[in-house]
Fold this protein.
Amino acid sequence: MFFASDNGSGVAPEIMAAILRANEGYTRSYGADAIMDRVRTLIRQTFEAPDAAVYLVATGSAANALSIALYAQPWTAVFCHEDAHAALDECGGPEFYSGAKLVLVPGPHGKMTPENLIQALGKVGESGVHGVQRGMLSLTNVTEAGTVYTPAEIATLTSLAMAKDLPCHLDGARLANALVATGATPAEMTWKAGIDIVSLGGTKNGCMGVEAVVIFDPAKAWEFELRRKRGGHLFSKHRFLSAQMEAYLTGNLWLRLAGQSNAMGRRVADGLASIPGITFLHPADANILFLQWPAGTHARAEAKAAIYYRFPAPAGREAARLVASWCTTAQEVDDLLSALRQDSLLAFELSDVLHGDQRTAPNP
Amino acid sequence: MFFASDNGSGVAPEIMAAILRANEGYTRSYGADAIMDRVRTLIRQTFEAPDAAVYLVATGSAANALSIALYAQPWTAVFCHEDAHAALDECGGPEFYSGAKLVLVPGPHGKMTPENLIQALGKVGESGVHGVQRGMLSLTNVTEAGTVYTPAEIATLTSLAMAKDLPCHLDGARLANALVATGATPAEMTWKAGIDIVSLGGTKNGCMGVEAVVIFDPAKAWEFELRRKRGGHLFSKHRFLSAQMEAYLTGNLWLRLAGQSNAMGRRVADGLASIPGITFLHPADANILFLQWPAGTHARAEAKAAIYYRFPAPAGREAARLVASWCTTAQEVDDLLSALRQDSLLAFELSDVLHGDQRTAPNP
Amino acid sequence: MFFASDNGSGVAPEIMAAILRANEGYTRSYGADAIMDRVRTLIRQTFEAPDAAVYLVATGSAANALSIALYAQPWTAVFCHEDAHAALDECGGPEFYSGAKLVLVPGPHGKMTPENLIQALGKVGESGVHGVQRGMLSLTNVTEAGTVYTPAEIATLTSLAMAKDLPCHLDGARLANALVATGATPAEMTWKAGIDIVSLGGTKNGCMGVEAVVIFDPAKAWEFELRRKRGGHLFSKHRFLSAQMEAYLTGNLWLRLAGQSNAMGRRVADGLASIPGITFLHPADANILFLQWPAGTHARAEAKAAIYYRFPAPAGREAARLVASWCTTAQEVDDLLSALRQDSLLAFELSDVLHGDQRTAPNP
Amino acid sequence: MFFASDNGSGVAPEIMAAILRANEGYTRSYGADAIMDRVRTLIRQTFEAPDAAVYLVATGSAANALSIALYAQPWTAVFCHEDAHAALDECGGPEFYSGAKLVLVPGPHGKMTPENLIQALGKVGESGVHGVQRGMLSLTNVTEAGTVYTPAEIATLTSLAMAKDLPCHLDGARLANALVATGATPAEMTWKAGIDIVSLGGTKNGCMGVEAVVIFDPAKAWEFELRRKRGGHLFSKHRFLSAQMEAYLTGNLWLRLAGQSNAMGRRVADGLASIPGITFLHPADANILFLQWPAGTHARAEAKAAIYYRFPAPAGREAARLVASWCTTAQEVDDLLSALRQDSLLAFELSDVLHGDQRTAPNP
């Protein structure tokens, strides 16, 4: 039972088949392949954005860093959630590429609140030349806490940014999961909600290694190309990125794959919700769950070969992150639940309830 | 007939098979996959360097930029040939990653001469704090001109650098071709010749997109990891890089693939040598040929669907770069030669000989 | 009455005299002047640090940015107080020079608490290659809130950093004021308390524009010189920086000047303490006071030509920062107090007391 | 006799007097001083540029680096002479601030020829995304070789740049000397000749440490302010920069000072021209002379306490750079000539003439 990360899963069969198909004959390199022409059209259609500039890179960190560098001047602040991947998990890549400063906005469950964004916006750029200026907003959906912004929530935040003339980036490493969770269309979740540039993830959701950057205003397209090249992110045998992305979007494969991981996330959440002693640290909106459970569970889960991330927890408790993937099966979920249920039942102590851990109820 | 670049070819069957094999089950991500352990061992064995640190990235530009950044401080000069890929074809990536300045060393046929390197070394770092300091040497083999340094030639250049305490980088985007061309072992061409860090190319020679960085002194390994991550070049589904590199090196596949492209380059060169009016601009040491031929040849070659790069040439002449690939066939070469021979014979004009183009005889 | 900033004051007569004296004949440029030799000796003696490397620049932002860049690698975090000048008032200069990320540590009254530093240290560098690494600690004394760390407080914080092998920087833009406030020696406040590198301010305290960087371990001296030059901070007519610093330190002029500004700060604080309705937002340890007073005071103070910074305050209140300088006179203080006292008495409302503004008592 | 550099001279009396006058009372800091308002007006009048944005920094390296960073994107090439100060003597500062690549254009006597600029422009930006793009032109007047471009020569070069839509920078560290040498007005030498941004030097020509950056199109003024602050180049006690620049430009002091140094340079040149065995390496257009003379002269000049830079020379010869300053006197020149004449007469050997050193005749 592997629930460590959706990065640990492999490549979906449709996508691997596309890679194999792409491996025929000679093609033009560096993004001039014919498949990329089709990808550009597909993404424009998918996002209802006929003018969008579309580029592919191989990692989400590259997509984020290049997107942020495109819109944030070196003397500006990028407002992002304090737990954002760009802030915590890219080793300073966004700063390296942009020269800008990340200003961390807090908020429960991985989501920036409008109040907190207002406060952060109000603290930056008010001291003339002495401080950095307001630069851009970067949101993440699905968030690092596994929660999901609705389009309306995103629009509220981007409208605050736009009131200060700030462009808005969406880190959509798990955008498909967010779309499935909300039922929103790609357009509704992005440009219709005020987003200017999207990191559209493929890797975590069944691709081998491809992310698209979708820039709704193509004025900066050429600058993006230069930044991508300069960063070492322009692939010579680019057709193999194109092929992945084409297959990923064709026939809504991306949404089907995300549907499976979300459903399996839900299956885990539903199963766990009935087990006393388990606390949901964040609402389980998509395929990622953050939990606390009684001490001792880790050891027993490990004995059953369950693999997942562990975090520090208060005394007597243990914390875990469980991630379902496009290829997670109901059987794997049930095996996990079975292991945890048995243990939890045994380990459950009334004091957990009496002491009232602040429990976040899983989503319905 | 595709002779535009070895980047236009696809993935060798053995390597694609390895990618397919790697696509089984869950694995640890970000380079902690079991295949990478084997790759590390393979590369250490291949280079007779049991302590070497080994990392994978997906592009040659990333390998070069990260390698240079690892050894060149921002206030130093990187000495490279004026036609080096790092200098001309990476859009300033090495400077972006390192902050260093590239100092261009001239030399015929893409090769730095010891005299020119001595002169460049003597001009830098002699004005105290006012100028940048000497930083490192970066050589390329196979060169951008398609020529090949012997290990002895490399050792001569690195010894000049080492006399100034400079580390030495080898851009081996086509290292396999250089090894095949010279018969040298990987160790002879690199650390035994004074090289400290190698960009070991896979992409152009039958991989999908993978390059290894081999650091003979592992002291800087952790810094390399951080720089790679920060640059957005650490793959989450890293196993697919590992799988390529494992297959590439296993059973000397990389040398067999390069043997084919070199042989096809030789076949083109031999065929062209017998055609009057064709000038070799550089010795054809490996799989890349630079030629001049009579005006009008481009049009006729295009009519026969021959694809290659064109360059400006003197009046009455045309210039071309032809690159053979791991998958170039003898039939493709013969078709190309047939087209060019027929045309050349017709187009040849005595004046070409009388006016004495400076012809570089192809290598025997 | 000018209490806007110690930056608004001019040059102390002793220092101007030294500048005039330095303007004789020809000298070697770029720091090779004979005065600089004496400055080096003076600073080494003053800090009881015979091996220290000593350099001069003209601005505090340059001193901070270069100091931080010298010790923080681009992939690391610099821990500083959330109100640090380096964090808020240098427009991202430390990040520009170092490439590092500033991690903001909170704490009341401009001072980092050990608990908060422990927490910040614990949150960084614990996710392997994914996050930035712990880089260095940067403290400020006098703090931006006008408070002063004792040597023991500094030693407590640096010992936490040293436990993680982190070097420690002290932004001493107002170091003289901190020394006067605590009675500590320069050595006690710096290297004896675990500081590795100091920005030693002169400009705010009676110089025209000079700051020294004191590096206790000279191993990085040459790198500092290169960074300074590269940043455009190496003065050609360096003797005029040297002359300022020589006069500044000679005969403890720097401590006398800071003694005057601290005494005038104290005189303001003492005078204000007896006025009802005035709240001290921070302890007034040195020459900077942060206050709240009843609404309407600004207008009346302005009518009396009192100049100082204003900040947002709760309804019915106004906030001010008052800074005394090396040249502030008792008469200026008394004029200020007179204006404020008269107004305050009239404006004072009992409710201010009853509603219990969180008042910080001024230091005794 | 000090002829090492105009950096070795002190501050002109009028400028020191202005510094003293500025040292009265309190002023607003960070460039908001009243003197700066007058400087802005003065520079706009002096350059006949009523809309120009005007900023002060303290070093020429800062002026150049900030000017180049303002106009050159990180992925572009800055075309400058191969001996430009920005290329050789600022330790990579322009690259540090801009991220751009310097492309070195050769040309005799420190001057870029139109042909060489055309060639350089033609080699950059022609390979699509793979190479850096054309960014800007940076010229220097007086050049590092001591020669002077006429406005017409500058206009020829800038027109080549403008044909590629490139902005043009003038490093005018010795602009006053160039104006005196040519009789051109500031406007003729700059914006009327196609220059967009000027580093207007004060330091070498009698100031203590101040350079103005004059930006003819004010659209980028705010960005310049942010870059200056971020670089640590915004002075808190800015009035002392303003005072220097005001005095420098008032009553054409700057031209009188440069007139003196040019006249003394001419006096040296004229005196040397009559001495056999002395070769002028470059035309002596302003206050800098590059010479070769017979071996042994250095030792004898040193015995007479003549100070100047020495360079490598062919066997039997010695090379020297002599720089006259705003405060060089006729007596100092005559003492120098006397020493050299006596020695030269003795050392002169007929073979020097017979072997025909390529002598550049000094300007009339």
Summary: DSSP finds 15 helices and eleven strands in chain C.
